[in-house]
Hints:
Layout: H1 2-22, E1 35-39, E2 45-49, E3 60-63, H2 81-87, E4 92-96, H3 109-127, E5 133-138, H4 140-151, E6 157-163, H5 174-182, H6 188-197, E7 199-200, H7 202-211, H8 214-218, H9 220-226, H10 231-245, E8 250-251, H11 252-264, H12 267-270, E9 272-276, E10 279-282, E11 290-295, H13 303-307, H14 309-312, E12 318-323, H15 329-332, H16 340-351
Amino acid sequence: MHSDGGKTMVGWGTAVRNIGALFREGIEPYTPTPSVDVYDHPHRRLRCYRRTTPAVGNPILLVPPLAVTISCYDLRPDQSLVEFLLGLGRAVYVIDYGEITYADRDLGFEEWVDDIVPDAIRRVSAEHAYAPVEVIGWSFGGTISLLTTAADPELPVASVTAVGTPFDQRRNGPMSLARSLGRLAPTELVTTPVRLLGGIPKQAVRIGFRAQSLDRELTKPLYIARHANDPESLARMQAVDRFMDTMPGYPARFYSQVYRQLIIRNEMWTGTVHLNAQHAVDLTAITVPVLLIGGNRDTLASAASVAAGVDVLTGAPVTFVEVGGSHLGIIAGPDARTTSWAAIADFLADTTVDTDELLAPSATAH
């Protein structure tokens, strides 16, 4: 009897300490995978993650979506795509866009598709004896990656992986409804307030991302109570909260293009995306292998809307894989290692250049 009581007291003590830590210093401090800057310019900081051994195979460039930080690829230990890819022996790079402010209101898809991402691809390739680059993007990061590759087929791209990247908004749940309502109202009704604000403020982005997982937010107190003695579960919850609390905003022009071209006109599905009146990108120009990954619980990019890309990218060999998980879960969830990441590993094994080892000239410095 005394022993059971002692265990209960220890259990309560652990729970109290865990909950106390959760609301003070945190269960687990954020410790990103070490990296060094290849270059650092506004909205285009290129980072190379440190390796302790020489890199093998094609280098990898991670392209984030706007309105999130690069931690989407490096959420926490065991929930880090970066860590997983390094474990495959690859050299891994990421573009960090930094903060988006009112001063960036005129930035649109063109800046990323024609400048920021192509420049990063060329630089990563040059670091690795001009080997082709495996490009991986989540959400709009996948959209940007695909548009970049289509806009310039001469870029040294080995493959493109797009995770949670929708093609057909008609098959995309809430977005399908938004598209239907949007077609009944003037586009300016949505884009004008955004333009006046200079974009979607970071606070609105954070609220919006939490709203798409409202059940999680409403049940969080119960989740904490049930897992008070489980620091791993609390650390996972805290990592997601930290990720959402650091989201930056969208530039006004970029958001207006997303709303008009991608949602209302559904141009990713038609196969030609008009960045502006003079610049249209034909997605059938992509000829390198493409991997599309959709989540069966993704409310922002349904698996069906992602799978539609198979019918759009007719110039490329395309593989579609459906996995379990939410929009964030398929790229950074606790099950991603055996689902999305495993699919990526298999795909990369098939697309890598035929060489035993590629070592960047600066790899020892990284």
